[in-house]
Amino acid sequence: MTQRPTIATIQFSPINGQTDLVITSTGSGRGRVSFDQSLASPLMLAIGSDRRAAPDDTVPPQMTPLFGAARRGWVGDVLLSVGQRHGSRLWLLERAKRTEATRLAAEDYTNEAVAAIATYHNVEMAVSAAWQHNPSPGLQGVLRINVKAAGTSVTQQVVL
User: Fold this and answer.
1) Domain range list for the chain
2) pTM score, two decimals?
3) Low-confidence ranges of the chain (pLDDT < 50)
4) In whole angstroms, what is the distance from residue 11 CA to residue 18 CA?
């Protein structure tokens, strides 16, 4: 059995759309960063962070280029080996149409984002993308991305 590294626990709040570290109380008004060995935190980071767009990717219109920011990307990529990238390219779909091609692209981008985690932990990942019914007025739709691995399930939404 492979020993999984201990990782800081990250929690997502759907009410305010924010992600933060979990702090466990140690008494006297103090606390410590909570740690776990599940895949939830690395999966949330992988699909919730923006991967730099590939040179042949079409960046969504109305993205203001500011010092190359139109291609986005995770700042920690500078610390990775040459050619490695962290995060997902799901952000490229923010202005896409509600089509089967968009849904399949979301699955591909998610598989790309979690591939390194699957390899590192030697686990199978099941990725799915499905359209939510009845989007809000003015929206093309909402894609619900789900990743399941080793008893852990993480969900991300892409609003079009």
Assistant:
1) 39-159
2) 0.77
3) 1
4) 8
